[in-house]
Amino acid sequence: MKITLAILILLPLVFSQNIVVSPSTACKCQQFLSENGCNNNTLGQCQWNQKNQICQQASCGNIQSQNDCLISKKNCYWNGQNCVAFTSCTKLTSKIGLICPQQNISCYGSNTNQCQSISSLPKCITFQIGTCGQQGGYAGSDGLCTWDTNLKECIVATNCSQLQNQQVCNTYIQNACIWDFNNGVCTQATCTQLQDQQSCKFVVANLDPNQVYPCFYQYNQCVYASQTLFQTQDQCQTNTLLNYRWIGTQKDGICVSCTQQLFEPANKCACEQFMLETACNSSQYCQWIQNSCQDINCNQIYNQLQCSMNKNCYWNLQSQNCQNFYSCNQLIAVNLLTCITQSRNCPNYMYQTCYSSYGLCSQIYQSQCDGSITNEGICYFNEAKQVCQSLQSCSDIIDENICNQISKLCLWSTVNNKCQQLTCSNVKQQKQCTFVFKNLNGTDIQICEWTNNSCSNAKNILNLNEAQCSSNSQFTYMYTGSKCVKCFQASIILPEQCSCSQLYLAQDCYANPLCNWNGQICKLQNCLSITNQELCIQNIYCQWTEYGCSDFQTCFGLFGSTPKDCISQSINCPYSDGVRCQNKYYYSPCQSFTQVSLCSNQLGSDGLCIWNKTSSSCQVLSKCNQILNSTYCGIYEYVCNWSKDQCNQSTCSTFTTPEQCKFYYQSLNSFTPIGCKWNITTNVCEQIGSMLTAYNSANCYSNSAKTARWSQTLSYNGVCISCGVKYIPNPSKCSCQQLISQINCIQNSLCYWSQTSKSCQEYECSALPENLCVTNMKCMWTTKGCTKFTSCSQIKGESLDECLSYSLYCPYNPGLKTCSSLKDFPECEEHKTQDTCVGVYGTGKNICIWDSRIQRCTKLHSCTGQGQLSCEQFSLYCAWINTTYYGFCQERTCANYKTKYSCTYVLSITDPNLIQPCQWQNGVCQPIIIQQATDANTCFTNSNGTSRWTSDSQTTGFCVPCNLPSYAVQYENKCSCSQILNQSECKYPFCNWSNNQCVQNSCTNIQNQFECSQQRYCYWQISQNRCNPISLQLNFCTTLKGNSSLECLAQSINCPSTLNGVCQDRSYLQTCSSITTQAACANSIGQEGYCTYNNQACHVISSCSSIQNYNYCVGLQHFCIWNTTINECTTITCSSISEKENCTYIFENLNSSSIKLCEWNEATTQCQNATSTTLTNKTIDSCHLETGGTYHWSNTQNKGYCISCSLDLIKLPKTCQCDQLTNIECLSSVPKCKLNDSGSCKQNECINIFDQGNCSTLPSCMWSNQACVQFTSCSNLQGATALDCLAQSTNCPGLSNGICKSKSQLSSCSSYQTASQCTLGIPSSDGFCYWNNNGCQQMVNCDAITQLTQCDALYRICTWSNSFNKCVPFKCQDYKNQDQCTFVIVNFKNSYIELCEWQNKVCQQYTDKYFRFDENTCYQNSGHTYSWVSDEAHGSRCQECYSLLIAFTIAIYLIGF
């Protein structure tokens, strides 16, 4: 119940000066507050009980006149001389001059007949012409009867002119009609026709005994009484037939009615919402001033009821006028009724003081009990128990008058002789057919309409005219000029409630008016069967038009000039383009609404809106204290509450009764209910720890605002689980520690900004609500709330729904019958029900959709063919395009967003984790690269939280992705562009296909900032927003400005450091441990490698296990993987990859990037390390792609070989032979060597080698006919290119007429005439060749190479110096990581190696005679030129191999950019 809006009103509904009373609503004796009011001026009806200090019903003998006796129709009757006790009508007999109604008005009969109860009579319609009222004065149970000559039937007479019998006219209803002897007709009696003071009492209007107009004798004439005429208690009570009583003191008091309109509707229009002057002024709490509707001034209110109802005013009992209200202390406090009579703001009385807070029914005296409002609801006095208690049902009231006094809510049924809830169909008079309250303890109204001569629920409120729209809705609706629409649309702020198909229990299905229970399952109601407009528009599948409820088609087919016009027809269409309705993507932010009437309660793109009178602008409604109106505050009853004269945030403790104690919402723009539960021990409403176990099957649905349901079909088995669609976050989203901007931090719901450390921190699990807890990989929901995740095996669930209610990463495994890891999440086709099909988004690259035609869950392959509802269900992937007659669905592009504020991003239908950012430019929404975002908000919002701003300034900084490596992953053996032979492998942005060959892409062709900044030879020019080539010879980085490494790296990969706002090269990098702030550390680079911030310090990421954040872990793809079983970041292995499409390759080390290949085993359906057949199975389409760009196809034809880009023929001296290796080293040299049964290492035979890659590198073998055989002659091998020949044997680097040739048959470098022939590293008789401006040249030394990419491709031999801007020999110190620090190759001819060692965090040349590795690393880390020697005399050591030169294949790691 909306207690804050329940208004006790002590006057009639009509604010006219002439008052109307009724015997059926007269005050009961116990309602008179004092002895003086009880004993005097109550027409003998009451007497004061001195002992109990209450007013009681007096005996009939105390009543002296017939009129006064008739008032007490239930207890007394007039016998002609005295008023005596009454039992029943059948005990009375009609007499001449004293017919039955003149003895007791509830009885019928004339002449000398026995009296009957009027309620026992037939209805008028049953009488024929001979027995209808005009012949014999007969009445029906529904009123006085008369014959209608037009209809030719007996009807209920509603005006005196219908009575044609003089006797009936004058006597049947006293003071109702008077016979006009001049004209011979019956006319309405008026007060002015009553000639003397004694007869000047009342007149009955419209032949209705319940419409009595009191009269007042003044200045020797009888006039209609008004409230202001009654200045004394005597006048107040006598002249109103005891319908009024005196409130206050004898001196300072007022006459008020016992008839109580208990509630003001909960959702009355705020003044600023009225768009028309007439509706504004008729509301009586507003006035039209300067073309806008504003709150009325108190001094302009002259009616006590109107004044006391206005929260800004109070009625001053001393001065009898309306004044501004400030506090309850202004009021005269005599009793509870005195307080409420003066102001609705003060509904409680204690200790001679009026209070703004509500009390309890049990605290109220009997005289003030009936109809009072407390925290418990409506109060009534229980006669049997003699206590004041809360009213649970109208039937609890046993007194007719008390029942009828609770107007618009309860009604006394004369047929059933009991009190019942009032409905539109109970209303018998057309002018009373306006509205009723829907619920006993609620304040929502049901609008009524008069059709076919009866009152019923209004079917189409949209079509009400301006007058009906306001009055019949009690100003909860307003007229927009074309439609009657609700001022406060509750439907626009509904939380994600359960769909009908999700409800497994019949009781829950019945509780949802949109659903039908068919005996087994719960189904959504058919739109055509819905007759209620509000229910219709809340159903996303329905729409409401002038023809009623029908299936929803499209917003564009509905007409409305304002948002309220549209939302009144369908919840799917909350906006308008001025003529037609539109969907949510036409939203504008609150600030765009410049008119008061369009702002209030409007839903903008940034939340609910409210008009700020101080700034005269529309603002986002984010906090309850922004609401200054108690009525407006009460709209959001489970978010806000009105107390202490202001609107406050609600919590569980706000609710003071078990009935209210259900849930609350934490904010006005976050509608996830927080559960509450009543503590029967402390009688306090408390917040629950977990909905899962706190609620049972009986209250799960109701106490969760219908957002949760019981998980099983049996009420005694299951848990309470949330219904809403669950979204697994994009794994590329920024982690809290990566966010530098406070704005970005606040935008991430899992983070908070620490004012102490000025950094973004992650909430502990215990601080997260359920909806955020289950989406956090580190947390899980339990019976104790949100706790740290342990393992999926700890979660107990019997279905997918139950398991996901604890963690979205632990779906149900039907085979194991337990909650399992995310890899077991069902495919779309495995979902058996609609709610599980679309219940979770983000579980993989497939989007699931329920196909209602075949009743199956399938993959969403295309937006084409989807209806508007389905299209908008996947609105980030699909867009509905309106046409003249209907429309169609297509895959969304940025251009489909029609407003600046909806223009954010688009998701790929093939992979939901792929984001296309958008930005509003030149009046349209256009696609951008996120690095082009110009402020912190756009950077984060338009990338779906996957990018961050590089500073804490809103506009000064750069937008960079969070979980892409801060510098490009540089594969040590990645192909250079000149090595690529076919167009499909020539990939942008590194390479470009031109003139039938693959060449290095020019900087000016690169449009993407990130891609540009990763090219060693390019940089992104911020001022011009374009990619330029690096042309300066020295200190290029110092030409760039940047306050952090992120800002510098956003411009060039060459510049990962900064000093005093100027970018610097790698030589200025700090160690991770020397970085002191989280903002500088997170995802940055140190001298040792990647850095991370843990335990208040910056550390190098030495292993994946040191990474504690899920997003950070998955951002290091191919390095690390999040183990969902133990919920930790671990080093990736081929076997840890669960999806076939990802089973391609991994990086062998976190801070270096040599690639290790994987392959999918179809038999075991698992990913495994590459085998000898992996490369053989590659095709022209998969070779380059599935090897991370480190292999390429050997020709342009489908028949060819997948060969390594590191293949070369450099001869190194002193390479070890097999028999020089230890057993451990022998095993690492497989398949070149093998360990035989005797334990010695021998060279392997060709027939024992099964892969082409190893076979072709051995001088004694060659690859032929898909097998490794003994090498014979190059002429036995054929190919389309020289690479085809090398792929079969490194002995054969040449080609002539399709026949492979040996090295001795090669020509010199100068024989290659074009760049396409002279690819980098191609062999010749001179050695290796490369192309420059002078043609094809022999590689002699590094200095001669002028292209950066060619230089960097010669890994371990040459490297590009940023300081000198030239190619120089590779040195040990060029290795930046310890695991790379092994050896370098010196010279292109007569090559040898220099060993390196890691000392003091720097790689340097090794100077000792013996290389001090261990047996496991000696051979591998020396380029196969050293082996482990066990020598007792000199000690075990790593020593060079003194042997004959053998052909040695070493990798020239080609790093492509």
Automatic annotation (TrEMBL):
Coiled coil: none annotated. Residues 59-101, 159-201, 387-434, 764-804, 827-872, 1097-1144 form the PSI domain. It comes from the Eukaryota. InterPro entries: Paramecium_SA, PSI. Keywords: Glycoprotein, Signal. Residues 1-16 form the signal peptide. This is PSI domain-containing protein.
